[in-house]
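Researcher: Quick sanity check before group meeting.
Model: Go ahead. Protein one:
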Amino acid sequence: DLVNLKVVTLDCSLNLVRIPDLSSAPNLETINLHLCSNLRDLPSSLQHLEKLTLLNVSYCENLRSLPSFYKATSLTELDLLGCSNLCSFPEIMGTMESLRHLVLSETALKELPSSISNLIGLEHLNMNDCKNLVCLPDSFYKLKYLGRFYLKGCSRLEIFPEIMDTMERLYQLDLSGTALKELPSSIANLIGLKYLSLNNCKNLGYLPDSFYKYKSLTRFCLKGCSRLEIFPEIMDTMERLYQLDLSGTALTELPSSIANLIGLKYLSLNNCKNLVCLPDSFYKLKSLKRFCLKGCSRLEIFPEIMDTMKRLYKLDLSGTALKELPSSIGNLIGLTCLSLNDCENLVCLPDKFYKLKSLERFYLKGCSRLEIFPEIMDTMERLYELNLSGTAFKELPSSIGNLVGLTYLSLNNCENLVCLPNSFYKLKSLKQFCLEGCLRLESFPEVMDTMKMLRDLNLSGTTLKELPSSIGNLIGLTHLDMNNCKNLVCLPDSFYKLKSLTRFCLRGCSRLEIFPEIMDTMERLYELDLSGTALKELPSSIGNLIGLTRLDMNNCKNLVCLPDSFCKLKSRERFLQSHIEVWFCEGRPYRSLVLDFSNCFKLGEKGVGNDIDADDNTSLEEVSSI
């Protein structure tokens, strides 16, 4: 007698094949058979369990059929997720008011019975990834309480049924990845619809003209509908639609009536390879916040902005075919992020660029035909990131100093850049300055005043011959990279003034023969890379680098000796074949200094100062102490 039994939990019982008759458990409320992967059927007595509220048979992969359950009048949730051999759903012979949630995702169902409409209380129906589903019942519209209907990934579903009457409560419909070619015009009867997704419906050819009637719609997703060539006219205002994703569609243009989407905040047309123009009415989208056109490789013209747009803060035009921007771009008074990366046809920027007072980030990376940066006629306090990498600039205007809030400036791989403005030092907020690969840059400007904020300066791969003595004014500099500066012949005597410097990289500076005297202690410099330089020796003042933990001199083939001051590195030292480890101990925990002298073929001739005189019978690896 199981009269008191209310809950049966047998989830993950992998050897369970069948469930016994349950008619002796009339008070059963919950049955959980999740992941009973060998369960083949359910007892017919289930339909007599009038108090049953939850039946979970998810991922019962061998379950092939269901008993009739319409008499289970208290059932509120039925979960059949992942029952991949379940090919049919039973007829519902009478109305069921209590069933709210029905999950049929990843089953093998080909169709639903027309009697599904008897689930008059159904609120949530999930049929995601039912790969065999080919049709829906015409009675679908009778599910008056249905709020969410998911059909994502039903890749054989070609037709959506006519909706013969209004459905007020359906607010979320996901048809992503189906084989639909069109939607019925009666879709407008979904008068409460808020979210409609048709993402990756590769066969979708057009949308119904009644689209504008979706007055409750807030989000409409059409990403990846690669055959959709025309967007319908919007014959009346749509106040609630705030997100429209048309990325990857075959649209060639948008209708001018797009301006009727007066509540639109997010519009994406990324990778619309056929898009050739935008409507002149674009500026009327007063609520627009983000507009994404990345990868619209045939878009050559951006429309004039005939009135101010206060709310648009992000505009992504990367990878478009734009040659220029309209001078009216200044009307985007709320713009904070503008991306024109990889606009390879872009040849000029508008003179009124400086009017974008809210701009914080400006990306022009890879604009390989852009030769001139406009004068900045007034201060721009908010612009903190400017990426000009890979442009064709020969120089920057002296008015660059008006970018008083700039913290990051990249000119990497600007191979035509020959000089920097003397006003560089006015960029008081600058933290990171990248010039790697500027092959024609031969001189660095004088730093006429202290720059406290600059932390990272990358000059690798430039043709600099020297640095100005005023480099010491970069009092906050922590990282200085000059790798592969093949023309560099000297460093300034003021080098030691860079008290904040922690890393200094000179790898591959093959003409650098002399390292400057270090006239004062430098406590913070912990890494010094001199690999591949032409140094013959290091100055005796190298001992002033009291914080140094790594010194790399690989391939310094002219190096013949190390200074006596190496002996200041007291305690014990171990010389290895490819590097020396020096251990410090001055009343503090041990710290190690790793020195790499690989391929320094002349070093053994004189050794370390006067303390080591390596003869023909003594190699560095044999020395165990000083």
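Researcher: Fine. The other one?
Model: Protein two, sequence then structure:
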Amino acid sequence: AVRDVLHYLMGAARADAAAAGAYDIGGPDVLRYGQMMNGYAVEAGLPQRAIAALPVLTPGLASHWVNLVTPIPRSIARPLVESLQHDCVMKDHRVDAVIPRPDGGLTPYRRAVRLALGRVAADDVETSWQDAEVLGAPSDPLPSDPEWAGRTVYTDRREARTRARPEALWSVIEGIGGANGWYSSPLLWAARGWMDKLAGGVGLARGRRSTSRVVEGDVVDFWRVEKVEPGRMLRLRAEMRVPGLAWLELGCAPDGDGARYTQRAVFFPQGLSGRLYWLSVLPFHGAIFRGMANRITAAAEAETTR
């Protein structure tokens, strides 16, 4: 469990320098992967699955399958699948002579899962495995680059005035994605997620770390939060498979006794394939982006009248 790893790291910082060396650490359980998966199912209230080993699958094919049926991208799925070929059992217990075990003992697997699920239910997840990805190279273009920067850029911009309070509008913007969805054409969004999965991308199933708050670096389905100006602007950078670079910016500002909502999709195409991609999705922009603007402002107005 992570809490046990932190216990040993803190203990190592306080340990006698004479004990320096490499030590194994591990939990109290020895489990097969199938037992771990069904243990998670029990704690999550899901049905347990029958698991059969298929030796004909290579790590490459298996990682594609894991990518299709779980939120885990292929880049992470492959090393996980490859690790199935190796036992990872703690056999060297010398660390017990250097760092005492935590009060109450090491955390069993099922209890660790229970604690993690409790934090998810309480919307109290501080970090996620999804946060380990980098946001992109510093040399990449930005949606704020001026037109004279020389790159071809396509933009879809929408604006709407709403009677909603600015703080209510921002609450809807900050909570977009995950269980809250994208406020327009769910079938089209789902189809785009599956297309991304089939191409080896991350798809829509990653969800969000928190249901109501975002910070820079957070994952939101197949987007990543690149910039947040609380109460003003949320910029999402696409991590789906596209021939180019794409962003979605959502903003709000006070406007008289209401607020003004702004929405901007920005795409920097890469070569001819990027230009053809933009033209192929252009007919759907009306349904997706216009519907998104209308429903986001409607949701904010509903929240204002509560």
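Researcher: One line on it for the slide.
Model: The mean pLDDT is 86.
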